[in-house]
Amino acid sequence: MTTNGYTIQPQTLRTAASGLTDAGDRLSQEWSSLLSTVQGMGAPWGGDDIGMLIGTSYTAIQEQANESFTGAAEDMTAFAEKLTAVADNYEKAEQQMVGEVTSVSAALNG
To answer: What residue ranges are annotated as transmembrane (predicted)?
Structure first.
């Protein structure tokens, strides 16, 4: 479907949606893997005063990173769902327009 000088190809939108879903899944898996690795190390910064400061700082940064990476993965999935919906809507609109044009053509030629 061509609209305002650009062409909409629903399958291309679906392919992009699949890529976003894959990227979101991969980000989520990699982040989980990193968290598991780091948690498996225990508290390598130690329990002395400096170690406690490092541990507190690390925990705060990890929480922010967790929010960021988890949110980005969720956003990618949400964008993928929206791209799929756009592809579906364009296909439905095109099918409807073809049906309407066919009806008008039949009425004019019939």
So the answer is: none
Segment 4-23 shows an average pLDDT of: 93
Pair 14, 83: CB distance under 8 Å? yes
pTM score, two decimals?
A: 0.78
pLDDT at 1: 62
Q: How many domains does the chain have?
A: 1
Residue 36 CA to residue 29 CA, distance in Å, equals: 11
The answer to whether residue 57 is domain-embedded is: yes
User: What amino acid is encoded at 18 in this protein?
Assistant: S
Q: Is residue 4 part of a domain?
A: no
Average pLDDT estimate for 25-45? 95
Give residue 2's pLDDT: 62
Q: Are 80 and 20 in contact (CB under 8 A)?
A: yes
Which of 23, 35, 36, 37 lies closest to 72 in space, CA to CA? 23
Expressed as residue numbers, the domain containing 40 is: 10-88
